[in-house]
Amino acid sequence: MDASRFGGTKILWKDRKRWCGMPLSFTRYYIVENEGQWLKLFSSVGFLSTVDNEVNFFRIFDISVYQSLFDKMFGVGSITLFVNDESSDKIILRKIKHPHKVRNLIASLVEKERQKHGFRLTEFHS
Fold first, then answer.
1. What is the pTM of this model?
2. For the chain, what are the domain ranges?
């Protein structure tokens, strides 16, 4: 998925899956805003054939960050987004740079989207 594919939108963040801290893969991630109307996370995996996924930010209900010792040495980590979506229950952003900063960005954008559209997350406790 090329960034030019998002014509008329603003890319708030983008990165690639990294190997030893270097962006040497064909896995790309984007956070995109469409003129203040919606925020979406896009992921694109592949070179000759690709799989593109997207999720609306208001569908994200939990976020976790994982960093192995090797990841910490190269300043990367993986973020798991738990989503309320029919196509998938989680999305993993693998081996991205500055995972805690990205996690904070995503959390603030999720909250912004929920407030903007009046959505509430209902939690059930047993």
1. 0.84
2. 7-117
